Amino acid sequence: MLPISTTVNKYIEQLKAEIAPLRQQLIDHRVYAAVKTIEDLNIFMEHHIYAVWDFMSLLKSLQRNLTCVNVPWVPVGNPQTRYLINEIVLGEESDVDEHGQRTSHFELYIRAMQQAGSSTTAISALVANIKSGMPVEECLEQDGVPEASAAFVKNTFSVVTSGNVALQAAVFTFGREDLIPGMFISFVNELNKSTDNKLSTLKYYLERHIEVDGDHHSHLGFEMTAELCGTDDAKWAAATVAVKQALEHRIQLWNAIADAIAI
Q1: Reported pTM
Q2: How far is CA 23 from CA 34, 47, 72, 93, 156, in A?
Q3: CA distance from start to end of the chain
Q4: What is the predicted pLDDT for the residue at 4?
Q5: What pLDDT score does 180 carry?
Q6: How far is Cα of residue 140 from the mean position of the Cα atoms in its chain?
C-alpha cells in the first residue's frame, strides 16, 4: 500500500470528522438492543440483505469505471487505483466460506438467512427479476421488498448512476461500513450456542466481514478516494455530502428494522 500524502490525509481526516456524529448514531443505534430472539434477527436480516446486495453493485460500478472491462482491452486510468479496486472485488466477490469454498459475501449472507430460518423469497425474486432485465426501480416495487430497504437501495443507485466516480469511491469507503458493534456480534455468538448452531453461518459472515473488510480494505478505500479527489476542495465537499446521505439512509433503515421488531 502507498502512503497517503499529508495534504490529502487532511482532507480524509476532515471528512471523517464531518461524518463522525452519524457514524456514532449507527454504532449506538437502538436496533442492536432490539434484537433479542432469532425471530428478531430474521427481521433484521430480511431487511439488511438488500444493503448487502446493492453494496456489490456500487463496488462493480467502481470496477467498471476504474478498470477496463471491455474487449478489446486497453489500459485505463491509474494502475494503482486499478489494483486497489480489483483487490477489493476479489475479496468481496470471491471469498471463502467456513468450509473453504469460494463464494461472494452476498451468497454467504443468503445461506446464513436460510440456516436461521429467514425468508429469502423476496430477495431471490429481486435477483431473478434483475437477471430477466427488469429495471432496479421496478424490482424494488415488487411484493415483499421492505419500504425502507427499497429507499436505501434507491439512494445507492443514485450514486451508481451519477457517473461520478469520486462520489462512488467516497460513499463506498466512508458510507458503507457496517459499523456493527462488538456487543451485537457477541449476542449472535451466544444465540448461536442456544439455537443448536442455527447462526453459525451468520457468525462466520460477521467475523469474516470484519477480517476482510477491516483496516486493510479501509486503507485501500482511503487510497482510492484520495487518488480520485486529490486536492480538489469541490470534490471533497461533494463527497462529504454524498457520504452523509448514505449514512442517513442507513440510519433510516435501522430505524425501520427496530420499528418492525417492536410490532
Answers
A1: 0.93
A2: 19, 20, 43, 26, 17
A3: 48
A4: 65
A5: 80
A6: 18
| Average pLDDT score over residue span 65-93 | 91
Residue reference for cell 471491455: 70
How many Å apart are CA 99 and CA 82, to the nearest integer? 30
Euclidean distance between CA atoms 225 and 164, whole angstroms: 12
HSE of 241 in the Cβ direction (CA atoms, 13 Å)? 6
What stretches of 214-232 show up as alpha helix (H) in DSSP?
215-229
| pLDDT of amino acid 8 | 76
Identify the H or E element spanning 109. helix 105-116
CB-count exposure of residue 210 (10 Å: 0-12, 13-18, 19+): middle
Residue 149's nearest CA partner among 53, 227, 243 is 53
CA distance 32 to 21: 18
For 140, other C-beta atoms within 10 Å of its C-beta total 22
According to the model, what pLDDT value does residue 9 have? Answer: 87
- At 213-253, the pLDDT tens digits run 666 677 888 888 998 999 999 999 999 999 999 999 999 99
